[in-house]
Design goal:
single chain; 308 residues; mainly alpha; two-stranded antiparallel sheet; 10 helices; 2 strands; 72% helix; 1% strand; globular
C-alpha cells in the first residue's frame, strides 16, 4: 500500500534544488528592490539620539542620496543584500518547503492553517539566524554614506565587511542583533501568512478576481501593509543595534528594550514606524518577485528534468 501511495505522488525536485531555487529567487528580487532597502535603513537611522532628522521624507532621502552619492549610491550594499538572500531566503524557503511537504497528508491534504503558521515562523527564525551576519554587513554598508568621511567604515564589499568585522570586533559581532532579527522574521512570517491568505480569499470571494498573478499581487500588497505595520518597531530595533558603535568600550545600546525607550523618548512614538513607505514599497514587490521567480525556476526544472 505504501509503495502504491508513493508511486501515485507527483515527482518532486530534490531538497537541495528547493534550497537553491529559494535563494536564487530572493536574490533576483533583491536586485529590483535594493534602493528601497537603502532608503528604509537611512530613514530608520535619521535623527538617531538627539540629532535633527537628516531626511524629512523618503522622497527627500532618495533625492539626497542621488545628489550626494550618485546613481550607483542607491545600490550601496547590494552585495550584502544578495548574500542575505542567499543565506536567509535559501534557509527559510528550503526549511518551509521541506516541513510543509512532511506535514502534508499522503492524500495530498495540506497542513492546517495554524500548523502552516508555525512552520512559517520556524522557518523564518532559522533563516534569520543564518542570515544575521549578512544583515549586519548590509545595515552598516547602507548606513555608511550618511556618516562624516572620517567615521565611515568603508567596506568595499560584503566579504570585506564580514572579514573586518570579525577581525576588528570579534566573530560574535556578526550575530549582533540576532534576537530582534529573529523576532522580526517570526512577526513577518506570521503576519504575512495570515493576512495574505485572508486577503486572497476575500478578493476571490468578491467575484472580481481569479486565482492569477493579479490576485496574488493585490493580496501581497495588502499583506505587505499589515506586515509592515506589525514588524517595523522590531525592525528599527534591529537596524539601530546592528549599526551601533562601541564608544569607550561601551555599546550605544544595551538591548532592544533600551532602543525602543530611547526612540520613543527622543524622537516620538511614531518614529518606530520611520521608513514605513520604502519598507512597504519593498515588501510587496519583493514577495511577488521572489515567488514569481521561484515558480518559473520550478516549472523549468520540472519540464527539463522531471517530465523528460
Amino acid at each position: 500500500m505504501a509503495s502504491a501511495a508513493d508511486s501515485s505522488k507527483p515527482k518532486s525536485s530534490p531538497k537541495y534544488v528547493k534550497f537553491l531555487f529559494g535563494g536564487l529567487a530572493g536574490m533576483g528580487a533583491t536586485v529590483f528592490v535594493q534602493p528601497l532597502d537603502l532608503v528604509k535603513n537611512r530613514m530608520q537611522l535619521s535623527g538617531q539620539g538627539s540629532k535633527a532628522r537628516e531626511y524629512k521624507t523618503s522622497g527627500h532621502a532618495l533625492i539626497s542620496i542621488l545628489r550626494n552619492e550618485g546613481l550607483t549610491g542607491i545600490y550601496t550594499g547590494l552585495s550584502a543584500g544578495l548574500l542575505r538572500q542567499a543565506t536567509y531566503t535559501t534557509t527559510r524557503l528550503g526549511i518551509y518547503t521541506v516541513l510543509f511537504e512532511r506535514m502534508t497528508g499522503a492524500d495530498g491534504t495540506p497542513p492546517a492553517f495554524l500548523l502552516k503558521a508555525l512552520i512559517g515562523m520556524t522557518a523564518g527564525a532559522a533563516g534569520a539566524f543564518v542570515g544575521t551576519p549578512a544583515e549586519v554587513a548590509l545595515i552598516r554598508m547602507t548606513a555608511d554614506g550618511r556618516l562624516p568621511p572620517d567615521q565611515r567604515r568603508g567596506y568595499s564589499n560584503v566579504f570585506n565587511a564580514l572579514a573586518r568585522i570579525s577581525r576588528e570586533e570579534g566573530i560574535s559581532t556578526l550575530w549582533r542583533g540576532c534576537i530582534p532579527t529573529m523576532a522580526r522574521a517570526v512577526v513577518v512570517n506570521a503576519a504575512q501568512l495570515a493576512s495574505y491568505s485572508q486577503s486572497k480569499q476575500a478578493l476571490l470571494d468578491s467575484g472580481y478576481f481569479r486565482d492569477d498573478i493579479l490576485c496574488h499581487f493585490c493580496a501581497s500588497m495588502f499583506s505587505g501593509l499589515v506586515t509592515t505595520a506589525a514588524s517595523m518597531p522590531v525592525d528599527i530595533v534591529k537596524t539601530r543595534i546592528q549599526s551601533m558603535r562601541t564608544i569607550d568600550g561601551k555599546p550605544e545600546y544595551k538591548n532592544g528594550l533600551e532602543v525602543l525607550v530611547k526612540v520613543v523618548r527622543n524622537e516620538g512614538f511614531f518614529s518606530l514606524w520611520k521608513g514605513f513607505t520604502p519598507y512597504y514599497a519593498r515588501l510587496g514587490p519583493h514577495t511577488v518577485l521572489t515567488f514569481v521567480f521561484l515558480e518559473q525556476m520550478n516549472k523549468f526544472y520540472k519540464r527539463s528534468f522531471l517530465d523528460s
